[in-house]
Amino acid sequence: MRGLPLEPVARLRRALFPRQDSQYSWRLASVTVSLVSVGLIALTIGYRIRGAELPPALWVGLLASFATVVVLFSKFLFWAQQEGGQFQGAFTTTERKFTSVVENALDAILILDDQAICREANPAAESLFGTGRSALIGHPIAHFYKNYDEFRANWQTLLNRKFQQGDAELMKEGPSPVFVEYTAKADCLPGQHVMILRDVTERRRARMSLLESEERFQQMANNIQEIFWMIDAETKKALFVNPAYETITGRSCESLHENPVSYEELIHADAALEMTAQKQAEEEAEALRQATLSLTQDLRMDFIMEILLKSLEGLVPYTCARVLLPESGPHMLALGERICPEQPKEPGSRSPLTFVAEESTFFHRILTQQKSVLVADTKTEENCHTFKGHKQLRSWLSAPLVASGEYLGCLSVGHTQPNLYTQDHLRRAELLAIPAAAAIQNARLYETACI
Q: What's the angle, vertex CA 364, arms to CA 358 and CA 367, rounded to 5?
């Protein structure tokens, strides 16, 4: 391959790097002048040693070289000052960007010395620790940790290993603790260490609420009288079986874990009359299991409302079902609503049902007692006809939604046919209300965390 001509290459280099080309020329000139000056000085010394007169041309050359050296030195001083200003400007710009990032970071950032004493903190740290910079800077950060000994041990590990991640519980004004996840890097500068902390309190609470929901699920499965188990569709392994299996079949739960298809041996040819009830019980248990699992798949409130009311249809027949939650003051809000059969939506968004509970003596009593209610025929129930949005319903039942001891609202289920609902329908609604209340509470925590 032929190379480019030298002249175009030189022009290209000068166009791309004009300043570097100029500096290169000046440096070359300075070296040349320096060599010439050294030669002239050596020649002058030679004349002096021989005691001869210096030629006028040599004097002119010396003066010219000295003047050139002064010019070059002045030029180099100008460049040095200019480059120093550019460096200082770049450093100032970088410092401003770094300061802006630190000051506006959502996570708390601390600069600590070898004794874990805070030397600098950003505004997010003030919010996290619930105090001002004056209470942070110059004070040991260990005083804010609930477990002081654990912090000292972790701090020594950080100094030895230079990097650490973990979680901790902080002490802050107020009854609720603060949980954080942290990342620490030692010796970012000599004797200075960086710690970044993130508040995960809401996430921790949501996790605890989920554990409570799982405990409620276990409690529900262990107390129902029907057999309830879960088997993995691919591996065919038994994932869960409730104690009713042993009571009804006389076989141990371990036997089902060892052989998941062993339940087929329990079905006798002369048990055909009982198959309908058993099948219904299995379908009910499966519907509850599917509903419980579905309610934990997403933390969005609209998703939970849709899954809840669809799952309810498989357990309790209804014409209209709603999730009624207290709003500000005496008002009630139908957060979720489903009509069966589904009706085509009219153009425009329809506002959710809201009403004042105190305007209905019947419903006010339900909210006050916070208990399950079953109405066989609303026409024979006193004051039931004043219940807004439910006048067309003849059979009606309600199951309370309670999570962590807190009354969230109720599950309202109604049908246009009178005398339809039984205690068994109410029992199914109550079972579904247990995981539903936990899911609603988790959704509220999630919305709060997002905000």
A: 130
